[in-house]
Hints:
Layout: H1 7-10, H2 13-32, H3 35-70, H4 82-97, H5 106-122, E1 127-134, E2 137-144, H6 151-163, H7 169-193, H8 195-206, H9 209-215, H10 221-241, H11 244-258, H12 268-282, H13 289-293, H14 299-305, H15 307-310, H16 330-333, H17 343-351, H18 362-382, H19 391-411, H20 428-442, H21 448-472, H22 480-494, E3 501-503, H23 508-512, E4 516-518, H24 520-525, H25 527-535, E5 542-550, E6 557-559, E7 569-577, E8 583-595, E9 598-599, H26 613-630
Parallel strand pairs: 3-4, 3-5
Antiparallel strand pairs: 1-2, 5-6, 5-8, 7-8, 8-9
Helix pairs in contact: 2-14, 3-11, 3-14, 4-7, 4-8, 5-6, 7-8, 7-10, 7-20, 8-20, 8-21, 10-11, 10-12, 10-19, 12-19, 18-20, 19-20
Amino acid sequence: xxxxxxxxxxxxxxxxxxxxxxxxxxxxxxxxxxxxxxxxxxxxxxxxxxxxxxxxxxxxxxxxxxxxxxxxxxxxxxxxxxxxxxxxxxxxxxxxxxxxxxxxxxxxxxxxxxxxxxxxxxxxxxxxxxxxxxxxxxxxxxxxxxxxxxxxxxxxxxxxxxxxxxxxxxxxxxxxxxxxxxxxxxxxxxxxxxxxxxxxxxxxxxxxxxxxxxxxxxxxxxxxxxxxxxxxxxxxxxxxxxxxxxxxxxxxxxxxxxxxxxxxxxxxxxxxxxxxxxxxxxxxxxxxxxxxxxxxxxxxxxxxxxxxxxxxxxxxxxxxxxxxxxxxxxxxxxxxxxxxxxxxxxxxxxxxxxxxxxxxxxxxxxxxxxxxxxxxxxxxxxxxxxxxxxxxxxxxxxxxxxxxxxxxxxxxxxxxxxxxxxxxxxxxxxxxxxxxxxxxxxxxxxxxxxxxxxxxxxxxxxxxxxxxxxxxxxxxxxxxxxxxxxxxxxxxxxxxxxxxxxxxxxxxxxxxxxxxxxxxxxxxxxxxxxxxxxxxxxxxxxxxxxxxxxxxxxxxxxxxxxxxxxxxxxxxxxxxxxxxxxxxxxxxxxxxxxxxxxxxxxxxxxxxxxxxxxxxxxxxxxxxxxxxxxxx
Length: 632
């Protein structure tokens, strides 16, 4: 071979076939399908596309690792590094035992549960917005398309299929992903600088309260980390093996990574870079039929992305009044009109803020920042001689640029303030970047005393800051929506039955728990329907969730505007609690609805029951038909 060359690649028909399939898929996803049809296609085909991609990914992993697994038969298991398994297990336990399991970022996580619910019940991609108990069976009768990608709710729906539907399966999935992620971190560290480097990577993450917060929640951040690191490690294996099974596994790992978070599509760039670099070094293209067909399994992602054009509110710009663009360079340093965020300043505020305010790790922030500086020098040095570097280093160099672009994108995002309680989780890929930088730089210091010293420092950081911060979790107490969600879930757990109706502006929480619910807005508009339910005792109770603010000077309590009902809806408090200063969270029972002095919900006088069975059945059918029409 005379040197790297792309000429043989251009002569390979399989490469051209892949290019044609990719072009046709892009045109179909972004241009050919009208907006009016796009979301409908995702609703009915999205689940099956993710299922096909996941099945092909598992098949590729099996083909790649079956030789390694065969070596574990007999006494081969004794060669496993059980000490590293113990370190990973201990790190996972530290992350899971100090935080309580619950939905931490309310709307994101509840929407994901709702999507998994429809995937489980009907294999469709919808978030239920209307559902109710009909003669003992919970039925979803209206849904909407959520903007979030599908891989996490798909995996959650598999858990529902195996164990039965329950919202808590989201916590089971994230618990398992926590150990998987730490195992991958350990593997990466071992590839960089040996066994103890793997332990160092695990320890750095075990002392990060932000990871514990997400490990015990219902979001997709752990899956995002797992897929980023899996793709990097599979890239290193492809560089080492340069065979078709490794190539297919790498491509499908990247394909599924794209379907976790939208911005994770950035990591397709380093994957393409790795593939082209290997092909140029080999002078030939590695290709497989699953990869040639892979772009077809991404059409639904492009169609799903149309939701940002169809539904302007999907960007949530209304949450930051005064801002009109989702992305802008002015957001990096706040160089704009008053109100323009300075994301870089907020980033520093997160990484080095007080542990009582932010779920950070001083040790990880300090070591990571120093390591990133030296990593820039290492990348500049290695770019000209990648062929002489070990596979893990080559893959990390390519992914270094992916992490940098992802971080830059977050700094240009209108809601990219890492110290915001809702946005902190978006810093997790940057934490992974920092830890990989530490491990990569550690490779330059082969002396055992260096990694031992760092392990001691990190261990001290876990004892001095990590565990106390996780145990106190004071950083959670400023997010009222999360506290109120946990309060509602406790109310659900305390009820002996689920045959009640709830009025709540966030009705999706109750529907996810298979409880009939309607929004406060709908309850204001549909007084006659509520009267019908109360007269006919359709539900054992009708509960109303409301939040109040308290005037510190007068003590007057005022119901939040979104939670307010008309004064002729008579409420009886059932449970109330102060979850945050100058607030009260209350659950009340709707006891009657009036029109002036008239009680509309008073049952009508008893009537004689018809003796004819046909008349009874006719009356019953008429009631059920009316009931279905009036369902919330």
